[in-house]
């Protein structure tokens, strides 16, 4: 039997900008290729902000791998999720035709846009189409955050609520946006969600829940970092991993640390993450919050290979995000290294972390409550050991690839026949 051929489409490449969706899609693609023998192509969208476009082509190499390429997609409307360069998308047609994919898997509509979905169907009419709903971009025009402008959690799109976030937009804009996106996603043979919570948000927004299957994320296998030696028995070293920004709750974590320091509670908080693409106003707030938290330190950005060394100094991983989150990979990383997690009490965070079993919950965005939970974590004898014992190993990429491959095969059982028909049709045309 010939190898299955799969086309992956993402909105970025982890070599250019690290992010959970890009990292998962890339790891899954490589596991499908290296462990399960699929053939394929990984196309990552990019813009001039990250990689200058080369004259005469939309394509350039992403690195040394011949099956990973960048596609310049600069003409993108972030409100409508619309890609204006339809001629550029059409120029990719001959390459997709040569690949003749059995499955096309879209991991994010950003940059590709709704026009990209239409292009996929036209360029690979016989392929099964799969899309993973990694976040809420398809629901929320405010960068998929499901947060109001004053920082409150939003339960989903509604005309009046969305207009409060976008007062300059006409109500019909939100109607057209929702109809256009849902119509485009109707083309897919399978929709996947990495968490039950995310699936529920889409169902509440009117999407057909029966079409959305649960398929959890995974991370690369790694030897767990050794636990820190604590001669006094206190487990009071906390760490935050991920991009430093407002939505990730970096300021909330720093404020909680400042409160603990003011109350004389011994602890340490390490902030691991870069500050790229943040506004000057936020960077000023971050600097002030850091200065006000004497027991906290910012250690800058990191590469995936650095996680083991950095997490070795931590007893706990804190995920202080102020939005619902969906299925944060940092939680899986913490569990891979056998660190209990302190996170918000809602969204994909609360689904991934079992309160009192492998971590602790705190009300989302509540500085005082987070400080109280951190104090409890540091001062309760035996709590850390109990939670460490409750941690289950997270799934790795080979396991996730096997699960995805089973889905692909169910959707495209006649792939050899279809490919043979296509090649014969091409030869007849020639």
Automatic annotation (TrEMBL):
Residues 19-219 form the Glycosyltransferase subfamily 4-like N-terminal domain. Transmembrane segments: none annotated. The keyword Transferase applies. Keywords: Transferase. GO terms for molecular function: transferase activity. The keyword Transferase applies. This is Glycosyl transferase. It comes from Roseomonas fluvialis.
């Amino acid at each position: 039997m010939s190898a299955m051929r799969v086309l992956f489409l993402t909105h970025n490449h982890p070599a250019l900008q690290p992010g959970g969706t890009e990292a998962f899609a890339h790891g899954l693609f490589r596991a499908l290729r290296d462990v399960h023998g699929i053939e394929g192509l990984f196309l990552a969208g990019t813009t001039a902000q990250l990689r200058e476009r080369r004259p005469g082509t939309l394509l350039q190499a992403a690195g040394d791998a011949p099956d990973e390429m960048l596609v310049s997609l600069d003409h993108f409307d972030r409100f409508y999720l619309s890609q204006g360069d339809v001629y550029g998308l059409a120029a990719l047609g001959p390459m997709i035709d040569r690949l003749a994919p059995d499955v096309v898997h879209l991991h994010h509509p950003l940059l590709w846009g709704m026009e990209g979905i239409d292009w996929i169907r036209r360029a690979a009419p016989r392929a099964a189409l799969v899309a993973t709903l990694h976040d809420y971009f398809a629901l929320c025009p405010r960068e998929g955050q499901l947060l109001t402008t004053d920082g409150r959690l939003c339960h989903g799109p509604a005309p009046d609520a969305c207009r409060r976030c976008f007062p300059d937009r006409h109500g019909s804009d939100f109607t057209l946006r929702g109809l256009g996106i849902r119509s485009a996603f109707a083309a897919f043979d399978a929709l996947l969600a990495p968490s039950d919570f995310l699936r529920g948000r889409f169902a509440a927004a009117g999407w057909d829940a029966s079409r959305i299957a649960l398929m959890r994320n995974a991370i690369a296998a790694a030897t767990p970092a050794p636990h820190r030696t604590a001669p006094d028995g206190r487990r009071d070293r906390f760490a935050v991993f991920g991009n430093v920004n407002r939505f990730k709750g970096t300021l909330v974590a720093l404020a909680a640390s400042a409160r603990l320091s003011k109350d004389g509670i011994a602890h340490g908080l390490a902030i691991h993450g870069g500050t790229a693409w943040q506004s000057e106003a936020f960077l000023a707030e971050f600097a002030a919050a850091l200065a006000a938290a004497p027991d906290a330190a910012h250690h800058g950005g990191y590469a995936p290979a650095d996680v083991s060394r950095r997490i070795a100094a931590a007893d706990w991983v804190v995920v202080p995000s102020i939005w619902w989150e969906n299925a944060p990979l940092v939680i899986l990383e913490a569990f891979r290294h056998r660190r209990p997690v302190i996170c918000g009490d809602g969204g994909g965070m609360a689904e991934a972390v079992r309160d009192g079993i492998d971590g602790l919950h705190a009300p989302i965005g509540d500085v005082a409550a987070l400080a109280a939970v951190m104090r409890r974590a540091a001062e309760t004898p035996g709590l850390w050991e109990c939670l460490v014992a409750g941690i289950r190993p997270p799934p790795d990429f080979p396991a996730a690839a096997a699960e995805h491959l089973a889905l692909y095969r169910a959707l495209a059982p006649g792939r050899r026949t279809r490919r043979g028909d296509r090649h014969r049709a091409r030869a007849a045309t020639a």
